[in-house]
Amino acid sequence: MKKLLLTFSMVLANFAWAQFSSGIVPLTATAMTVKLDTTPTGVTITMTGDSNSMLGIGFGSVGMATGSDGFIYNSSSNRDYTFPGPMIPPTIDPSQDWTETSNTVSGSTRTVVATRSLSGSAGDFAISNTAATINIFYARKTGTGIGYHDAGRGYATLTMAATTLSTNEIVAGDKKVNFYPNPAKTTVSLKNFDKIKSIDIYEATGRKVRSIEPDQQNINVEDLKSGIYYLEIKLKDGSLSYEKLIKE
Q: What 3-state class would DSSP assign to 4?
């Protein structure tokens, strides 16, 4: 039993993947909440509020400052916005970097969950996977159409604190994907590559640099710059495995 517990602990330690979270932050002026979670590969926003309202947050310490980046739930499919300035309706970003993964209503409360890369694209507020504080402004408008807020607005600070992936997000035991050598210079060999559906490789900044659907044991990494990379490995059974690769 001691050997089994030690082996399991070592597996979990090997799979621990640093991430940061703001926890659930009440936005009291609008009866909303917001939560940010980051990993080395991306950021997830979870926002709650009145189900029949437009719900929005912007990044920065000055409300609707020209050029500030925003995430707004509304009746359209767009979520990524830029503020042209105070008292001016926000404009739709040409690149919709936020991907809505969940939108549910319970009673009178809507919960919206969306993800994007840490850096987003041009004009987006870059979010790092580090301990930090992020200033936001927020607002709510009656009805789900885009428009000027009439149901409260305010400011808040999100404090990103270190945490780790929960055990139900960690793939352990015989599902673990091993690869070698690590550090690597030119190629890495995958153990049980036949179980792998795809591999996404991310820089430490969270930018995806490659997607692979391996059809053989070895993958070429020679063209990657020296540094630390994170591998998000999707297995054919639908589970995920996370690994860190050091490129020499």
A: helix
Q: What is the DSSP string of 118-144?
A: SS-STTSPP--SSSEEEEEEEEEEEBS
pLDDT > 70 in the chain, percent: 87
Question: Is residue 171 one of the residues assigned to a domain?
Answer: no
DSSP-assigned letters across all residues of 183-222: SBSSEEEETTGGGEEEEEEEETTS-EEEEE---SSEEE-T
Q: Are strands 32-39 and 25-27 parallel, antiparallel or unpaired?
A: antiparallel
CB proximity list for 93: less than 8 A, separation 6 or greater: 78, 80, 81, 82, 121, 123, 124
What's the number of domains the chain is made of? 2
Give the mean pLDDT of the chain.
Answer: 85
**Residue 1 belongs to some domain of the structure:** no
Q: What is the model's pLDDT at position 5?
A: 35
Q: Give the model's pLDDT for residue 16.
A: 44
Domain assignment present for 15: no
Same domain, 107 and 193: no
**Do 119 and 158 have their domain in common?**
yes
Q: Where are the alpha helices (DSSP H) in the chain?
A: 2-15
Tell me the pTM. Answer: 0.66
Asked if residue 147 and residue 210 are part of one domain, the reply reads: no
3-class DSSP assignment, residue 152: coil
Residues 140 and 189 in one domain: no
Decide: helix, strand or coil at residue 112: strand
